[in-house]
Amino acid sequence: MSPAARGNEVDHMTSSESPERGSRKFLWLSLGIVVAIAAYSAGWFYVGGRIERSVDETVRQAIADGGEATCTGREARGFPFRFGLFCDTVTFSDAPGGVIVEGSGLRTASQVYDPWRIVGELDDLKLRLAGDSGSLGVTGNDVRFSASLDDPLPQRASMTLADLSVEAPFAGEKVSTVLKALAGEAHMRQREGDLDLFIQGRTLRVSPPGLGTGLDLSRVELDLTVQDGVRLADASSESLRGASFVLRSASAFFTEEARISLSGPLAIGQDGLIDARLEVEMNRPAEVGEALAAAMPDQADQIRSAMAGLAMLGNAAALPLRIEKGRARIAFIQLGQLPALD
């Protein structure tokens, strides 16, 4: 056979083997994809089962501690790219701590690549805190929340809600609505062992007993740091004694221009008495005075007189508020003794 003929035969054999090899590669690739999908699916449903078992364990632990926990209509959803827990209704009560939480329409989700970052929704929420001096009830709708989970506290957590309402007893009177807000939000983050907190309410009506017709506010804000707050939260202490705070701002806005704000460091001693070096700032004191006078007509003359004096300092007045062992004074005016905190 000539060299040319032998070359043609080799080329023919090579070309006849190529499709077979290609078919085997395609078969192995297809099999690998199927196995990967099966393994991923099995892993997802395993984690989903772990989520449901974790809920069961939480329910058992709450009951063992004398409380209650339920998650009706529980279902793990989100396949293939998310993990989510859905419940028709949820309840939790901590019998020793007097905490009761109820909600409906719970929907949560976390991404497969970041399972510790959770977002969720609740159609409505009811929270009740019971203590020796009475109970505090909070309700809201359209609740949205998120958290980056960690131990013992989330690294970050946020919540927003609409139609906020707070009920509480005052001076032995029956429970009444003391605050309503069109919307509210709260945020928390850990920072080098401290806890930064920010709380805001918008379009509020504050009406505790004794405040006359009630007080309308466009916004309230609380921005503070709880020093060593992670340790204090982990200790699960119900007492504020020994806690220290940096109050960046506690503000009540009557309008976007007229407001009262407090800022400065504050500490609660082991005896329950407060020590603080605060600054009181007031923008447009005349407008603030008229709003307070309308809410408390019995003290209207005294309020207008005090605000007229502040207005002489300008539209932005600032005064020092000092509290030493519970005894408070603003500038050189003694305000009296504050009671010790529990």
Can you walk me through this structure?
The protein has 342 residues and is an alpha+beta fold. It is built from four helices and 16 strands. It has helices spanning 3-64, 229-234, 285-295, 300-311; strands at 68-72, 75-77, 82-94, 99-111, 114-131, 134-148, 156-168, 176-191, 194-206, 215-226, 244-253, 259-268, 274-283, 316-324, 327-330, 333-337. It has a 16-stranded antiparallel β-sheet that branches. A hairpin with a 2-residue loop joins strand 15 and strand 16 (333-337). Helix 3 runs antiparallel to helix 4 (300-311). It is elongated and about 100 Å long. It starts with a helix and ends in a 5-residue tail after the last strand.
Large-scale geometry: elongated
Distance between the termini: 108 Å
Q: What fraction of the residues are assigned to beta strands by DSSP?
A: over 45%
The quaternary structure here is single chain
* Mean pLDDT over the residues: 80
Give Rg in angstroms.
Answer: 31 Å
Largest β-sheet summary: 16 strands, antiparallel
Structural class: alpha+beta
**Total E-strand runs:** 16
Give the uncertain stretches in residue-range form. Answer: none
- Estimate the helix proportion, in percent: 25-40%
Order of helices and strands: HEEEEEEEEEEHEEEHHEEE
Q: Count of DSSP helices?
A: 4
Using brief descriptors, characterize the structure shown.
342 residues, alpha+beta, 16-stranded antiparallel sheet, 4 helices
Topology:
Blueprint: H1 3-64, E1 68-72, E2 75-77, E3 82-94, E4 99-111, E5 114-131, E6 134-148, E7 156-168, E8 176-191, E9 194-206, E10 215-226, H2 229-234, E11 244-253, E12 259-268, E13 274-283, H3 285-295, H4 300-311, E14 316-324, E15 327-330, E16 333-337
Antiparallel strand pairs: 1-3, 2-3, 3-4, 4-5, 5-6, 6-7, 7-8, 8-9, 9-10, 10-11, 11-12, 12-13, 13-14, 14-15, 15-16
Helix pairs in contact: 3-4
